[in-house]
From TrEMBL:
Keywords annotated in UniProt: Oxidoreductase
InterPro entries linked to this entry: Flavodoxin_fold (IPR003680), Flavoprotein-like_sf (IPR029039), NAD(P)H_dehydrogenase_qn (IPR051545)
SUPFAM superfamilies linked to this entry: Flavoproteins (SSF52218)
Cellular component, GO, one term: cytosol
Species name: Piprites chloris
Gene Ontology MF annotations: NAD(P)H dehydrogenase (quinone) activity
Similarity comment: Belongs to the NAD(P)H dehydrogenase (quinone) family.
Domain Flavodoxin-like fold: 1-111
Protein known as: NQO2 dehydrogenase
């Protein structure tokens, strides 16, 4: 998805609101590592309008991990889902055609080994270190 106003597009958030419902995706007594979807994996793959530097610790947008906190931790991890390292393509609109091809190649390569990846340590330390 395209990163939109520091979050996912409304249509994707609406889908999550309708599908990840109490009793199916979460229960207040069973959340995070004990959540109802603990046998599932998630991977956020998205593009940004800004460069990697803009989403760095000293960048104008702040560290991209801050942006990911509510989506990966607050939604997916809350439901018990194990979260893989996100796949981010920074500013595809403004980079060279060669760089866009490199982004596609990197995504293709990652998809070949995706099931072997270890989930991130979905704790505040991972996001705010």
């Amino acid at each position: 998805f395209p990163l939109f106003w520091f979050s996912m597009p409304a249509i994707l958030k609406g889908w999550m609101d309708r599908v990840l419902v109490q009793g199916f995706a979460y229960d207040l007594s069973k959340s995070y590592d004990g959540g109802l979807l603990q046998d599932k994996l998630s991977l956020f793959s998205f593009t940004t309008g800004g460069t990697k530097e803009m989403y760095s610790n000293g960048g104008i947008g702040g560290d991209i991990r801050y942006v990911l906190w509510p989506m990966q931790h607050g939604i997916m991890h809350f439901c018990g889902v194990k979260v893989l390292e996100p796949h981010i393509c920074y500013a595809p609109e403004i980079v060279s055609e060669e760089k866009r091809k490199e982004m596609l190649t990197a995504w293709t390569q990652r998809l070949k080994t995706l099931w072997k990846e270890e989930p991130i340590n979905c704790t505040p330390e991972w996001y705010f270190k």
